[in-house]
Specification:
The chain is mainly alpha-helical. The chain has helices at 3-7, 26-47, 55-65, 70-77, 81-93, 118-136, 141-165, and strands at residues 68-69, 97-102, 105-113. A hairpin with a 2-residue loop joins strand 2 and strand 3 (105-113). The termini are far apart.
Length: 167
């Protein structure tokens, strides 16, 4: 076995090797697979809280910022407006958010977390802590720190391209 082969993760039945079409993008393929698995793990943890993946991001933003215009919330989370609207409808039905007209502009809506949702904050933090533990299982502290550093660089590089495309 070569040193390179020893360092590469071995495929398991749940995590098969990259298809041949992805051979020119092994990092992109790995990120896609990890992101999919991370979302599944998050979904399992959030399901117990009555949330769907992604809804916790809206709630985190609202808990931190207070009432914001719906249009600003959409920009801050970087999702399609129809997706955010559907998420807000579900969160509103569950009693976690409320929407009201913006007093300074009747055409705009303000969205805010309800008092009832504040108890959910502790549960979301706990779920994210467990998700972090599951995600970093098998990495030592130095590797975890390096992973965060490298992912930050990847994010910055992608973010610049995405922002340029939207201007």
């Amino acid at each position: 076995m070569t040193a390179q082969a020893a360092r590469e993760p071995r495929p398991t039945p749940q995590c098969a090797a990259a298809p041949s079409a992805a051979l020119d993008g092994p990092v992109s393929h790995a990120i896609s697979r990890v992101a999919r698995l991370h979302r599944i793990a998050a979904g399992r943890l959030l399901r117990d809280l009555g949330l769907h993946p992604g809804q916790e991001f809206l709630m985190m933003h609202l808990w931190d910022s207070g009432a914001v215009r719906q249009s600003e919330l959409i920009k801050s989370v970087g999702l399609d407006p129809s997706t955010v609207t559907k998420m807000l409808q579900r969160l509103e039905q569950a009693g976690h958010v409320r929407r009201r007209p913006d007093p300074s502009d009747g055409r705009a809506s303000l969205v805010e977390a309800t008092e009832a949702s504040c108890g959910l904050l502790v549960d979301v933090r706990r779920a994210w802590g467990e998700l972090e533990r599951q995600t970093l299982e098998g990495l030592d502290e130095a590797e975890s720190t390096e992973l965060v550093r490298l992912l930050g660089k990847v994010e910055a590089g992608l973010c610049g391209g995405v922002i340029a495309d939207h201007e």
